[in-house]
Amino acid sequence: KPILAVQREATRVPGPLGAAGRELAAVLGPHFTRENEIALPPLGLLAALAAGEKPAGMEEALAMSDALRNELPRMLQEHTKIRAATEKLRVVAQKEKASAYEQFAEELALHARTEEEVLYPAAILVGDVIRARLSAK
C-alpha cells in the first residue's frame, strides 16, 4: 500500500496506536505537501537532462530546485520530527503486535533516508544542470 494510505489507516486505529498515527500525520502531511511542490517535480526532468536534452518546464523546475535548496535545512529538521514520530509509532505497533504498522514505520524511516541521501540532492543537482544549460543558450 502507498505510504499515505497506511498512514491514514493508522490515524483511525483506536488507542495508543491511533494516537501515534495521528501524531505522525501532523508532521508528515505538511511535509509531503511541500515535497510534492518543490522536491519531486524537478526529478521528472532527470532522464531528459541526463540524455543531454533541454526539456520543457526547465524554468519552473529551476525555481522549485532553488526553493528546495533554500528550504533544505527546514526540510531536514522536519525529517528529525518525522523520524521521532515514526519511531514512536513503530514502538507502539511492536508492543501491540501490529506488524503491518511496525513494517510501515520501518519503510517510512527508509523512505526519509532515501530522500535525504538521494532524492533531495538529485533535485538540487537538476537545478544546477538546468542553470548551466540555460546559461549556455
How would you describe the overall organization of this protein?
- The protein has 137 residues and is mostly helical.
- It has five helices and no strands.
- Helix 1 crosses helix 5 and helix 2 packs parallel to helix 5 (99-135).
- The longest helix has 38 residues, at 58-95.
- The N and C termini lie far apart (44 Å).
- The mean pLDDT is 94.
Layout: helices, strands, pairs:
Layout (H helix, E strand, L loop, with lengths): L2 H10 L2 H29 L2 H5 L7 H38 L3 H37 L2
Helix pairs in contact: 1-2, 1-5, 2-4, 2-5, 4-5
Q: Give the H and E element order.
A: HHHHH
Assembly type: single chain
Shape category:
elongated
Radius of gyration: 18 Å
Tally of contiguous helical segments: 5
Beta-strand residue fraction: under 5%
Largest sheet: none
- The span between the termini is 44 Å
What is shown here, in short?
The chain is mainly alpha-helical and 137 residues long. It has helices at 3-12, 15-43, 46-50, 58-95, 99-135.
Features:
137 residues
